[in-house]
């Protein structure tokens, strides 16, 4: 939108990429140092430094591969050229794959193997598994019809 001044599905993808970065990092879109979240994350991830990007509030309670996948997806969503961004259908597929990695990690490692409060994690994990067991999966709708 910034360069074309026209809303499109690809501008929605960009915006969703910003939201993904905010979720992963816990940071606002414009950081206090007047740095855009995309620049900030891209610089760190280019060095392979995922742990400095992930929100400290997650306290290590995540599957590293899952978080890498989401962070990489967010960067692809925020590519400068709209033609280089994935479709929202691709985004949904990638997010579901990331969720499967996360759930697989929980099954393999039991409750969790990170720092932080295990009881707190067990409570949030129980809530997540209850919503998964109910068979409800969030389907994302994009484009002008979703507005």
Automatic annotation (TrEMBL):
Protein known as: Protein kinase domain-containing protein
Q: Which residue intervals make up region (Disordered)?
A: 100-147
The UniProt record lists the Protein kinase domain at: 1-99
Gene Ontology terms, MF aspect: ATP binding; protein kinase activity
Tell me the organism: Aegilops tauschii subsp. strangulata
Q: Which Pfam families match?
A: PK_Tyr_Ser-Thr
Question: Gene3D superfamilies from the xrefs?
Answer: Transferase(Phosphotransferase) domain 1 (1.10.510.10)
